[in-house]
Amino acid sequence: MSFITLKDGKIEIKAMDEETLFGGEDFNNRMVNHFVKEFTRKHKMNNSLHSRVLMRMRNECERAKRTLSYESKVAIEIDYTFQGKIRLK
Q1: 7 vs 32: CA distance, rounded Å
Q2: Residues contacting residue 83 through CB under 8 Å, at least 6 positions apart
Q3: 61 in a domain, yes or no?
Q4: At 56, which CATH number?
Q5: CA 35: distance to chain centroid?
Q6: Cα three-residue angle 64-68-69, rounded to 5 degrees
Q7: Containing domain of residue 80, as a range?
Q8: HSE of 56 in the Cβ direction (CA atoms, 13 Å)?
Q9: Tell me, what is one Gene Ontology molecular-function annotation carried by this entry (predicted)?
Q10: pTM flag (> 0.85)
């Protein structure tokens, strides 16, 4: 795992670690947990989101993670049936 910054077209490695117990699925889970907290805080809802919404969120987090391997920013949008699309950053 690496923590890098990209500024003025230059990549700077800030930290590196070979954490063998932390993989892609762990990263996805942390992203999903972060966005669930953000969503429930922003929309003042309880923490129990419908399983389909969680599945969509997990899929979008996976897509975002892959996109971030070659882009510096990515938007996550999930179609939430009751209130239209939600946008997470």
Answers
A1: 27
A2: 43
A3: yes
A4: 3.90.640.10
A5: 7
A6: 125
A7: 21-88
A8: 15
A9: ATP binding
A10: no
